[in-house]
Amino acid sequence: MDFLFVDWLGKPLWLWLSFLGIVIVMLAVDLGIVHRKSKEIGVTESLVTSAAYILLGLAFGGWVWWYMGATAGMNYLTGFVVEKSLAMDNVFVIAMIFTYFAVPRLYQHRVLFWGILGVIVLRAIMIGVGATLVEQFSWVLYVFAAFLIFTGVKMWLFADKEYDVAANPVLKFVRRHFRVTDRLHGEHFWVKQADPATGKQAWFMTPLMLALLMVEIVDVVFAVDSVPAIFAITTDPFIVYTSNIFAILGLRALYFALAAMVDRFHYLKYALAILLVFIGSKIFVADALGLAKIPPVASLSVTFAILAAGIGWSLWKTRDQAAHPA
């Protein structure tokens, strides 16, 4: 069993396998027991499931704090909060995707569940590449930091612009080169039916498959922001990956509650823009002050303050909408 103690990306292999085991068990319980059959998920169930995921994520963070030290624990918590916050913008885009493809709530959980499997693999690849680059070329952190500042400014300037699903080039390519049905076929991603051109039986993508594809694309796009953001907090691949995955798992569960009140979080995008600029500028500020890095407690405190201000301002500005819903 010596191979379990082999170092992989700075941590023994058993540590990585233990984390993946926890995630597999959580997903197996989710799909195999709780949501074995397609059903419409209500706000209450969404909140309860999300709370369970958040508690598990925080419990894992508590273990990281105990096993790896206070600094690692603080970095995990900061990464967890930042990733969950940035992923909230992802939720708004996913809601647009489901609306565009007319995916009923009955089948949305199926898309989100299979989407998370893609996220687990894609984030692992991106974080592995990022960690290798940072280890080999320390100046890459400054590139990440500058990119975050640029992204934050861009997010602020385009906060009022909605995501145009139909204009996505990948979606256009798929529709041109693959067979796609005009309507949903229950919870199926693929169906076999007669090809109008040849009359022969052929496999067709359904709109549910296109929705899943778009969700994965959106995840990749948002990972381009979130992965550099957490590398600006810590360069430990284990902390980066585990905080990313736990945050995403919890937010996907919370989707059904958030999607019902998307319009009430409009100003959160401005807070996220400020947060990205803050995270990116930390590296340059630390250098200017002659520090190795900004203390984790300071980073976490400012992160909470920015997000609390964004959420509070959003809820305050839309209070009349909540009191008198359309």
TrEMBL record:
GO cellular component: membrane
Tagged with keyword Isomerase: no
InterPro entries per UniProt: Integral_membrane_TerC, Integral_membrane_TerC_rswitch
Superkingdom of this protein's organism: Bacteria
Membrane topology: Multi-pass membrane protein
Keyword annotations from UniProtKB, A to Z: Membrane, Transmembrane, Transmembrane helix
Main location group: membrane
Residue stretches spanning the membrane: 13-34, 46-66, 86-104, 111-133, 139-159, 208-232, 238-258, 270-291, 297-316
Compartment annotation: Membrane
Family classification: Belongs to the TerC family.
Descriptive protein name: Integral membrane protein TerC
